[in-house]
Design brief:
Layout (H helix, E strand, L loop, with lengths): L2 H44 L2 E11 L10 E6 L6 E7 L2 E18 L14 E7 L16 E3 L14 E3 L1 E3 L4 E8 L2 E9 L3 E2 L3 E6 L5 E8 L2 E4 L9
Parallel strand pairs: 9-14
Antiparallel strand pairs: 1-4, 2-3, 3-4, 4-5, 6-7, 8-11, 9-10, 10-12, 12-13, 13-14
């Protein structure tokens, strides 16, 4: 082989790997785009605030795949390990994408006891890795006033799966029935016949006339009647 031909052949050999890498990179970009769309929808469905995503692709051999290769979704149930396939000349080549998601979420600002109503002042927002915590909460108001089934350490991320509504009305305790009708609000003293959390319907007894009625808990020691009782006493 002549020196000139040898130089051209050597140059060709150098160009071939670069061409293959460029093709694989194009397909990887397509996979990453599809994966990012899935993760963004996932974060939006949960309501995470200002999510930041990092994606890492673990690929097989994508060399030789056409730039317009179709990307097929296999399994995206867990962002930490999503599976896709690039269709290369009729052959499926699997690609694993591992996502890391960070978002502004609620964490405890101090140690919290289980079963004790949580005050808003004991909570704060921080940016945390929430990839493995789909129950992470983004709004302090969603946590304040509730109780946790487990104790939490200062700095621990709050998981909504641990939370219970606090008991706002206690059995045999005094409550106020707040009845509203046509712009008029009437307060009636009553006794709770059951414990109740926000939104629960319980039985209460009118302290003035002994009438028992069903009412919905709307706040601490406060309920609203399911039906406006006749002859309500102010």
């Amino acid at each position: 082989m002549k020196p000139f031909e040898t130089s051209c052949y050597s140059l060709l050999l150098l160009l071939l790997p670069a061409s293959g890498a460029w093709s694989a990179s194009s397909v990887e970009s397509a996979v990453e785009r599809v994966a990012r769309e899935h993760v963004n929808r996932y974060a939006e469905s949960i309501g995470w605030a200002e999510p930041q995503l990092k994606l890492k692709l673990t690929t097989g051999n994508l060399g030789g795949c056409p730039d317009d290769a179709n990307i097929e979704t296999i399994d995206v149930r867990h962002p930490s390990r999503m599976r896709f396939a690039a269709i290369c000349n009729g052959e499926k080549r699997e690609v694993v994408v591992r996502a890391t998601i960070a978002a502004n979420v609620v964490v405890s600002a101090e140690d919290l006891k289980a079963g004790t109503p949580i005050d808003a002042s004991s909570l704060k927002l921080e940016r945390r890795d929430v990839t493995a915590t789909p129950g992470a909460v983004t709004n302090i108001d969603e946590v304040a006033g509730k109780t946790s089934r487990r104790a939490m350490r200062a700095g621990q991320l709050v998981d909504r799966r641990w939370l219970n509504e606090s008991v706002l009305v206690k059995r045999n305790g005094k409550v106020t029935i707040i009845a509203r009708n046509a712009g008029v609000e009437v307060h009636v003293a009553a006794e709770a016949l059951q414990n109740g959390r926000r939104g629960e319907v319980i039985s209460v007894k009118n302290s003035a006339n002994g009438t028992v009625l069903r009412a919905r808990v709307i706040g601490p020691d406060a309920v609203e009647p399911l039906e406006i009782p006749s002859g309500t006493t102010r």
